[in-house]
């Protein structure tokens, strides 16, 4: 199990490096090992890592598709705001509650919000996320987000 995950990290390392020689292999192996050690508790929650169900994989693919869609949609929205002569922004910091229990899923939600242009996750503690929005109207989108719905279904 440990070897499989480190090998997956190493494969990603090789793809990023675009070449493979002895130096890259040694450095990559060490980096991948330490990344595994550092993230072991987050990734392998009580040995449930490899007990994934088919629905979890389906929800993961659905989540990724929605994330890409939201990133593109928000990119155009933020570009429209920035390029317009009248800078129509109303920055707001808002705290939302989440029902997600898993630390990994909470981190995914917070990172997804940060990846979406116009929003930034400032703080994540317990069941609350503190988020900065570029426009006041974005708060409603956050409260009705598909991200949390899919993560809650995947957590079941």
- How many whole angstroms does the radius of gyration measure? 19 Å
Helical content stands at 55-70%
Q: Give the number of DSSP strands.
A: 3
The biggest beta sheet, please?
3 strands, antiparallel
Which H/E pattern describes the elements? HHHEHEEHH
Shape: globular
What structural class do you assign from the helix and strand content?
Answer: alpha+beta
The largest sheet has its strands arranged as 1-3-2
- Tally the helices: what do you get? 6
Strand-residue proportion: 5-15%
**Can you give the mean pLDDT?**
84
Measured distance between first and last alpha carbons: 23 Å
* Unreliable sequence segments: none
Q: What does this molecule look like?
A:
The chain has 156 residues and is an alpha+beta fold. It has 6 helices and 3 strands. It has a 3-stranded antiparallel beta sheet with strand order 1-3-2. The relative contact order is 0.12.
């Amino acid at each position: 199990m440990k070897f499989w995950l480190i090998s997956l990290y190493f494969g990603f390392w090789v793809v990023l490096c675009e070449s493979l020689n002895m130096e890259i292999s040694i450095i990559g192996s060490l980096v991948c090992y330490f990344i595994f050690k550092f993230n072991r508790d987050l990734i392998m929650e009580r040995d449930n890592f490899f007990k994934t169900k088919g629905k979890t994989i389906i929800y993961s693919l659905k989540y990724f598709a929605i994330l890409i869609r939201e990133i593109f949609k928000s990119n155009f929205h933020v570009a429209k705001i920035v390029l317009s002569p009248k800078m129509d922004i109303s920055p707001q910091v808002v705290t939302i509650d989440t029902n997600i229990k898993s630390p990994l899923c909470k981190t995914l939600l917070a990172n997804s919000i940060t990846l979406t242009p116009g929003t930034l996750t400032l703080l994540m503690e317990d069941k609350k996320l503190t988020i900065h929005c570029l426009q006041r109207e974005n708060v409603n989108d956050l409260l009705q987000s598909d991200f949390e719905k899919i993560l809650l279904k995947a957590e079941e």
